[in-house]
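Technical note accompanying the year-one report. For the benefit of new consortium partners, we illustrate the data format agreed upon in the data management plan: each record pairs a sequence with a structure-token string. No post-processing was applied to the example shown here.
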Amino acid sequence: MTTEEKLQHFYEVSMDTAREEAATILEKYKATLETEMECHKKEKQAASENQFKIESDNAAREINKALSAEHLHIKKKLSKKQQQLKESIFDEVEHLLESFSQTPEYLDWLEEKIKESLKIAENDSIQFYLTAKDSDKIEELAKRTGITPLISETDFLGGIRAVIPEKNILIDNTFLTAFENEKERFNFDGGFTHE
């Protein structure tokens, strides 16, 4: 082999070795870069998922806050509407009581309440009171029951009040007391099951 051939052979062997070493170094470098890239991807993915969770939680809180505010607003509106309806109902009831107090049945009812109170009093003295607007019924009640009611100083919409002093008993059959008791106990039960 000539020197030139030897040099050529040396050159080729050196180049092959250099290429192999370069390929090995490139493969290692590429593997390192890929590993680092996978780590970077995982970190970014975890950070992204964490950010997504934080944003989702924030959005859920904001939605819940808005729903809560809207629920409160609806509840206030419902309460206000219920109060309006309640007032309307009890205005109507008051009107019906007023209408009833102008009927013959009202006199019958007053007579019945006087007789019930007399049974409770037995032989004790008893005093009956009517509201001022029922003063025109005193004479008829006296004819029917033998009792002459007095006019009360306080208005109670209608009905009759009886006092048995010996037993310290007040018998309250007034529209006002019944009206106020019902108004206080009145409650709206609504929804799909109560429509």
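Partners are asked to follow this layout when depositing records. The longest strand covers residues 159-164.
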